[in-house]
Amino acid sequence: MSPRAATRPVGTVTRGTTNPNRLRRMDRWIAATHGAELRRAADPVAVDLGYGAAPWTAVELLLRLRTVAPRARVVGVEIEPARVTAARPYERDGLLFRHGGFEVPVPGRPLLVRAANVLRQYDEGEVAAVWERLCSRLAPVGQGSRGGLLVEGTCDEVGRRHVWVALGPEGPRTVTFATRLGSLERPSDLAERLPKALIHRNVPGEPVHAFLRDFDRAWAAAAPYASYGARQRWMRAVRDLAADWPVTDGPVRWRQGEVTVSWGALAPRG
């Protein structure tokens, strides 16, 4: 049965907690890294999957995507019918709300699916199947296009700390760590926000544990740069980290309190 033919939404109801601006760091990264794909598309549709008890994240996603892709449209998808009903008054040009789950009940294949704080309640063993299902709904790779993007991850309640995985139609590509630098004592503080695929792997012998260990060491070595501010210390630490880990972005993103690493370097063993 195709995703659109499913009669019942796939997934379970989340807690639904959300706050305005909670996903701003994730949204800005999406706009910066995926904006060109959205601009080129004939119908740039994005899905805010599991937006929660209030529609703020979907409203904000539309506003932020339209700064880089004025024709972008957002569909908020929720598995809890009452949340969809409550969100309907916020519909506007380019913004709709639909009842559904991991089947992603929108026509065609969207260019973006954002699933933030959705998989926290699932078991680690369920993640791969959810990723596969969602990736199958993305716009395919084409001439001059890398296809759609799935961004799945976790953040704290006020959006100061995020970690997310970016996936294309072929599967996982990168992992991004993002933080409000003024709130950070050490990079490993981000461990509590690792997505479900990684959070239980932050143990000795696993790549993500080694990465955070090395990041903390680079952060400590960059302590003299703290006199110039947390941003300069972060940038120096990331520059040193990149000597041993496949960091895929550069200083423009580092200045935002971000660093992105190839998924293969952090993927769980076994």
Content of β-strand = 15-25%
Order of helices and strands: HEHEHEEHEEEHHHHEH
Please outline the major beta sheet.
8 strands, mixed
**Oligomeric nature of the chains:** single chain
Radius of gyration, rounded? 18 Å
Spans of 5+ residues with little confidence (pLDDT < 50)?
A: 1-6
Number of helices: 9
Structural class: alpha/beta
Main-sheet strand order equals 3-2-1-4-5-6-7-8
N-to-C terminal Cα separation, in Å?
31 Å
Shape: globular
Count of DSSP strands:
8
Query: In percent, how helical is the residue content?
Result: 25-40%
Task: Tell me, rounded to a whole number, the average pLDDT.
Answer: 94
Quick rundown:
With 270 residues, the protein is an alpha/beta fold.
Task: Please explain how this structure is put together.
It is a single chain. By secondary structure, this protein is α/β, with parallel strands linked by helices. Helices cover 32% and strands 19% of the residues. The protein has nine helices and eight strands. An eight-stranded mixed sheet has the order 3-2-1-4-5-6-7-8. Strand 5 (149-155) and strand 6 form a beta hairpin. Helix 6 crosses helix 7 (230-241). It is globular and about 55 Å long. The chain starts with 23 loop residues before the first helix and ends with a helix.
